[in-house]
């Protein structure tokens, strides 16, 4: 029903963001709410999917269209519901998930929360060869790097610094961040990937 919602990110929770549009605040479940911390209070677009069940109506939202497209593919697989698909996207980039499905890499797929061997095999059976609308089957490397293109070519240190600033804005103390920083240094990751890894360290 809703293709996307354009508005200001007003609230960031552990599992959702609230985006205000024309005086209405929409609670949107998203794989990694913390990626929106750098634009809190600013206007943005969140690509949405409305999930309707007998007992619940929920909005799921994504920073990128390919995340939304892959989410819709994942929930079509027997054994994967919206929460499971959201968890997969929270811990993996779409291109990595697609590559694993096309390569029948069950070992990689079972690393995601809630995905056992049976579910991994079902993902491969149901989705292999059916993800070309998200990325061409013969062009994964280009797809993987396309979203990371930046004319300024941010350095590893810049990505890590941006991630730490985002986490500080969410309320994490300098003491907490200094404790985990050595475990993050020396990795060639995007800002979002640093945030994901940092959150895993902070909650363990």
TrEMBL record:
Homotetramer. Forms an RuvA(8)-RuvB(12)-Holliday junction (HJ) complex. HJ DNA is sandwiched between 2 RuvA tetramers; dsDNA enters through RuvA and exits via RuvB. An RuvB hexamer assembles on each DNA strand where it exits the tetramer. Each RuvB hexamer is contacted by two RuvA subunits (via domain III) on 2 adjacent RuvB subunits; this complex drives branch migration. In the full resolvosome a probable DNA-RuvA(4)-RuvB(12)-RuvC(2) complex forms which resolves the HJ. It is found in: Cytoplasm. Has three domains with a flexible linker between the domains II and III and assumes an 'L' shape. Domain III is highly mobile and contacts RuvB. Transmembrane segments: none annotated. GO terms for molecular function: DNA helicase activity; hydrolase activity. Keywords: Cytoplasm, DNA damage, DNA recombination, DNA repair, DNA-binding, Hydrolase. SMART domains: HhH1. This is Holliday junction branch migration complex subunit RuvA. It comes from the Bacteria. Pfam families: HHH_5 (PF14520), RuvA_C (PF07499), RuvA_N (PF01330). Gene3D superfamilies: 5' to 3' exonuclease, C-terminal subdomain, DNA helicase RuvA subunit, C-terminal domain, Nucleic acid-binding proteins. The RuvA-RuvB-RuvC complex processes Holliday junction (HJ) DNA during genetic recombination and DNA repair, while the RuvA-RuvB complex plays an important role in the rescue of blocked DNA replication forks via replication fork reversal (RFR). RuvA specifically binds to HJ cruciform DNA, conferring on it an open structure. The RuvB hexamer acts as an ATP-dependent pump, pulling dsDNA into and through the RuvAB complex. HJ branch migration allows RuvC to scan DNA until it finds its consensus sequence, where it cleaves and resolves the cruciform DNA. NCBIfam families: ruvA. Residues 155-204 are annotated as: Domain III. Belongs to the RuvA family. The keyword Ribonucleoprotein does not apply. Its main location: cytoplasm. Residues 72-91, 107-126 form the Helix-hairpin-helix DNA-binding motif class domain. It comes from Lederbergia graminis.
